[in-house]
Amino acid sequence: MREYLLTASFAATICFLITPWVARFAMQSGAFMKIRERDVHKSTTPRWGGLAMWASMSVTMIVVSHLPLVSKSFGREAQGIFLAGTFIMLLGALDDRFDLDAITKSAGQALAAGILLLHGVQILWLPINGILTLPPAIGQVVTVIFVMLVINAVNFVDGLDGLATGIVAICATAFFIFSYILAVVNGFNRAGAPSLITAILVGICIGFLPHNFHPAKIFMGDSGAMLLGLLLAASAITLTGQIDLNAISQSSSRSTFLPLLLPFTILAIPLLDLGMAIVRRLRAGRSPFAADREHLHHRLLSMGNSHRRTTFILYTWTAMFAIPTVIAAFAPLWIALVVACGMLAFSLAMMGDTARKNSEEKWVATHV
Which member of 92, 164, 193, 274 has the lowest number of beta carbons within 10 Å of its beta carbon? Predict the structure, then answer.
């Protein structure tokens, strides 16, 4: 555990220190976000936050490759994740600067997933009628779809300062805890790509968040959102898609569906927002990639919640799905339900406080 904590801390430190330099470079290069009608920010803000994240990931990988335990995580899978992450970051950086069309970005995302496949990062089974081992071709298609789904889910939820950064940090922390406890409790390999990538992912999010939280000094842009999405998807695949499910079911009383269910419960909020956006836009006869102001965070803002309060509410909703799912894997189900109910109550209390303040303000406005 100490080596992974060191890995996350080092990644956070490097990302925190390098981000201001990247912000200045982005402004000089013309990679900045002008104010649009649907935006909530009030000033021109640099993008290319993904460059800082990628640089932090690269330096961290070089340094921790010399640690006794973590060095064993470096193999074909880790190499493929790094190469795919580099490609998707460069694609996102070009989009941040030149606004690429949706077809080009989708093709690039599929190509990045292909890089993962070439390095053995692939979903091998599905929990259908017990355990269904996928034919290689079907597994490759499912992998590409899953990677693109997670990338776009993270990209769609990146609509408020610090929102996507914090949500990914929570998701990655849940993945790391699950993989590490699985290793300690059930004897699986602790020195694997999932533990390494999720530790780095948590670190770069924590390091970037102080610069990205409201009011943001820099945006992650597509370079950051797509990089985080790919790393999260790759972690999920290497963690859940390639674990021996028979071994898990023999050593644990939990449902054999959990390893594959975990990515979807942890990513529930980004995936829900993505699904709602696609359905909403298709029903209106628009492209599913057409921007609007009807995302979950927009709706919470319209209820009178402040920027920061909205962000914390969505953090809580993410944790409400992610943390109990991990708890349910190794503890009695009632504990997970209690934790989930507690987080739900906390988020509802925040929303209720906003509603009460709005009601008081309306009363004052009509009676004074």
Answer: 274
